[in-house]
Amino acid sequence: MLSILNIDNENKIKIKFTSGRYYVHAPLEKSADIENILSRIIGISGWAKTVVCEKNINAVLTACIEEGKKLFANGIKTFKIDARRTDKSFAHSSYELCCMAGDAVSEAVSGLTVDIHNPGDIIKIEIREKAFIYSGGVKCFGGLPVGCAGRGMLLLSGGIDSPVAGFLMAARGMIIEAIHFHSYPYTSLEAKQKVIQLANITGSYCMGIHTYILNFTKVQMRIKERAPLIWTTVLLRMAMMEAAEKAAIKLKCKCLITGESLSQVASQTIENLTCTENRIKLPVLRPLIGFSKEDIILKAKKIGTFETSIQPHVDCCTLFSPPHPVLRGNVNEANELYEKLELQPLIDEALNDYELVK
Ligand code: ATP
Ligand code: MG
Predict the structure, then answer these.
(1) What confidence score (pLDDT) does residue 220 get?
(2) Parallel, antiparallel, or unpaired for β 151-155 and 255-257?
(3) How confident is the model at residue 3, as a pLDDT?
(4) CA-to-CA dists, residue 321 to 233, 235, 236, 275, 342, angstroms
(5) Strand (E) or helix (H) holding 30
(6) Residue 129's pLDDT is what?
(7) pTM listed for this prediction
(8) How confident is the model over 64-80, as pLDDT tens digits?
């Protein structure tokens, strides 16, 4: 049975689903917008523009011939037919359909020939509640539908890694909330705008991301005043984790997500990652932990965050960062130093004065 999920009356867009397929009915002038949206939806394996016709063999063969003409006009010289029948009452088997359509198309379109081993394109026939004929098709990201795997809090910086980390967890079905720490006026308003833009791009794959923006200037100044220089980055990360966990619990997130990757920088040795997370209870998911920077960059380019990430704005982590940071921090020492900072009131102050960007 078809169910109508959504109708945009003004623009006459209808979305229907059956088992294994969604159908989007839309006027042609909306194609470009819809194709853009479909290509970003996590949880679908791909989409194709299809011709729909009655389930009779003449209509199917005519539609295949039209598809063949289109392919030939686009320079394709060889094709094959791929037919599937979920409606087994249809008079012809999939194999018969392939043979009949293959013959019909190659006879009608001279110059276009069948090559079942190495075709230039494939004309697909699906016999379902109607007959669907299409070629081409776009592969999407796959993954699991956003919302089926709970809610996670992404620590979003303005860099390359964290948007990719958020995308990967969204692709495992997680709803993403984001938290960003800035140190205005030491960091610029442009740096904050960049993070909002990154949240927008990443959110376009997962029904939007709410970004909680916190001013961490006082926290950072306190660390600068009271901690040994070599420890400042790790201590700042510990403070971020603490603030992020508090926000996460309030927002019913079940984990924190970071863009950390083992040994990428000094603060991401296994010892320093241990220090960073040791005071919090929520699990910290680090989907990029085994990725090389090259792999992360490839992914960032694919999802469209890379060009924004490389805009040169100072992040709060690079501010006051020591030239020679501690490499293998000891957890007990980290905790002793952290407690001397007496950060709780400053973290609470930052948490109470957030800016929310939807
Ligand atoms: P990215 O890792 O996103 O490229 P980066 O390289 O500037 O940014 P790292 O120093 O690698 O940041 O930080 C490791 C992780 O810590 C980030 O991936 C992010 O999850 C978190 N993080 C760093 N800075 C911030 C910040 N200002 N606000 C929120 N989270 C941050
Ligand atoms: Mg990084």
Answers:
(1) 96
(2) parallel
(3) 43
(4) 6, 11, 10, 17, 20
(5) none
(6) 87
(7) 0.86
(8) 999 999 999 999 999 99
Centroid of ligand 1 to alpha carbon of 258 (angstroms): 7
C-alpha of residue 309 to centroid of ligand 1, in Å:
11
Q: Which ligand minimizes its atom distance to the CA of 237?
A: 1
pLDDT in tens, 313-337: 766 666 677 888 999 999 999 999 9
5-46 pLDDT, tens digit per residue, is 455 566 678 888 888 888 998 888 888 888 888 888 998 899
The two three-digit tokens of residue 156, written as one number: 């979003």
Mutate to test the pocket of ligand 1, among 156, 157, 232, 299 (most ligand atoms within 8 A of CB): 157
- The identity of residue 282, as a single letter, is L
Helix and strand totals (H; E) in the chain: 12, 16
- CA nearest to 148, candidates 131, 115, 171, 173: 173
Sequence-ordered strand ranges (E) for 87-234: 113-114, 121-127, 131-135, 138-139, 151-155, 175-182, 210-215
